[in-house]
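Researcher: Please predict.
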Amino acid sequence: MKSRLLVLLLVSLWVLAALGCTGETQWEQHIQAGMAAYERGDYEEAVGQTKAALREAEDFGEQDPRYATTLNNLALFYAAQGRYAGAEPFGKRR
């Protein structure tokens, strides 16, 4: 499950790079820190960093792919911990 999640996250970042949406933004720093924390097994930090990325992504608007990527990452982080009730709201947001 963990390797599958990592692949999904990496694909998300690759798609964003292809769309020209990456750069050294606060959003990207939080996303990368969240992924690194998840890989270390620090799920609380991963969720915290990704929630910070969500606050940044909300400024981009709901049509921006960074917004959907961030919601997806949060849902995946919660689901990977078996916290499905926590994952559901992020999976339902648009």
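Model: The helical segments are 2-18, 26-40, 43-60, 65-80, 84-92.
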